[in-house]
Here is the input.
Amino acid sequence: MISEGIDKEYAEKILFDLIRLPSFSEKQFGPITERISSELSKIGFSVEYDRESACIIGRKKILGASKTILLSAHYDTVIPVEGWTKDPLSPRAIDGKVYGLGASDCKGGIASILAAAKVSKPKNNITILISGHEDVKKEIDGKLRSGIDIYLQNHKLKANFGIVTEATAKEGAIGILTGHFGKVAVKISAKGVAAHGAHPEQGVNAIEKLIEAYLNIKKELQLEIFTFNGKEYRDTFNLGIIRGGEAINITPSNCTAEFEHRFHPKKNLEDVKERIKQICNRSRVNTNILFEFPPFIAECPNNFKEACARIIGYLPETRITRGGTDANFLNAHGIQTIVIGPGETKTIHAPNEYVEIDRIIECAKILSHTIQRGI
Ligand SMILES: [Zn+2]
Here is the structure.
């Protein structure tokens, strides 16, 4: 086992402090971004805060270094869900687990990054990007955007390898995510012509028009199965909201629906959006993209996996996921990025969310090793 000299008390203090600073609404972002920024300054990073995207960027340049490693996590969280039996904003350590809102998603990941950056004597330049608006999306012109998406649209970021420390542990065993599905969330709206229910042939039924368009989208885009590492992952459609009609004896003149479609990494986001638009145009149904992220498959270097195995004592399972993280946007920006983090996946966005301290230390050791030895 390799010891990278991680300061456990420091990592715990960061985690506790961050959980105590609520960040489930944009209004709360001030104190937590100040706390993270000042911590980055203290450990020798030059820091900038991008107000528009609510992202914090820390940089450490190493004399003579030619490569840059990017470490990334997000500080915002979902709102506390029903069912917490503990105060979500008062962190508590019980049997090696720290309970609190955002413990796994993704404040434990930030603690790993800061603990690694504090002790490491890097051979590589390090960029640390701590994003906001990952769980609390920002609405711009009716479309929801991730903070990192906004940041990367306005700034060129370069790195040779990226690691996002979102939760990847399953029952205490850390995994590596080397790919994510893509996603598009769409609002579709159909207009019809109202008529008396006794004479529907005199009107145009907006609900039927919309359902027909939706079923055509589902049929023509096809739900494919993608096999990765011997495991099958299927494309999905989820029709989440449908609204229309006023009474059973009136032919409805309006109907709207919102659905999301997740698709495997061999598909292309722009193609998927274009197909949806074409099908809707054909049916004279309007489309509005509400949210999107591109899919990716990244290379995870063997020496990185081997280093993980030496540090944590087992070879982490390599998986992909249908969920999205900031790694979608980083890969689309040209930075080869994988996901490996301390959080316990089953607890994220769930009551009594927790992270195991041992996983935070293991993850910090992996990060520290990576920035010291390179990739
Ligand atoms: Zn997250």
Notes: The radius of gyration is 23 Å. The longest strand covers residues 182-191.
